[in-house]
Amino acid sequence: MEIQLQELIDQIKKDGVAAAETEAESILQAAKAEAETILSNARAEADQIVLRAKTEQERLVKSGEDAIRQAGRNLLLSFRESVVRELTAVVRDNVEAVNSSETFAQLILRAVEGWAARPDAGDLTVLLNSADLARLEKTLLADLKARVQNGVTLKASDHFDGGFRIAMQDDGVYYDFSAEAVVEMLSNYLSPNITALLKEAE
User: Fold this and answer.
1) Which terminus of the chain has fewer Cβ atoms in its 10 Å neighbourhood, N or C?
2) What whole-number distance in Å separates Cα of residue 168 and Cα of residue 102?
3) Where does 24-140 show beta strands of DSSP type E?
4) pLDDT tens, 71-107?
5) Parallel, antiparallel or unpaired: strands 124-128 and 152-156
6) With contact defined as beta carbons under 8 Å apart, do 149 and 112 qualify?
7) Residue 182 in contact with residue 150, Cβ under 8 Å?
């Protein structure tokens, strides 16, 4: 009886230890699995943080580069506009100098001669502003009559500051050599060339 009791105690101990070992192994496996899950989640979160940081860095770099490019474009556009403005001022000064010089009357004479040489040319009217007409009327009219067979009339027009216009009477057609028209024409011609030169320098 005593032997059976001892065997029973030994069996209970053996079963208890086995159960405890199984329980311990199960707890250990669960802990390992949980640790792996925590570690995997931490790695995934770290990867996401790194990816977000890299994406944000790339966005900031691109944004900075775009801002620098835009600033460069703005600077170049501003410089072009400044060059065109200065060029227009230079052209205007030179046109005004020619219109107030002694060669102005010769310029009118040549333009009228060229127009009068056309087969369809009739009587012509030369429009000048009041100041230029008063200054040039006597000598210019005499020279025009001597050189041009058709009738030429000089008229005052204060619709422009300087230069002149040549019109065919009763036709409504005229060539505009006013200071404003000449400056605009020369500036329009020169501006694309200046722009092209500036583009080559980029």
Assistant:
1) N
2) 25
3) 124-128
4) 878 877 787 778 778 777 877 777 777 777 677 788 8
5) parallel
6) no
7) no
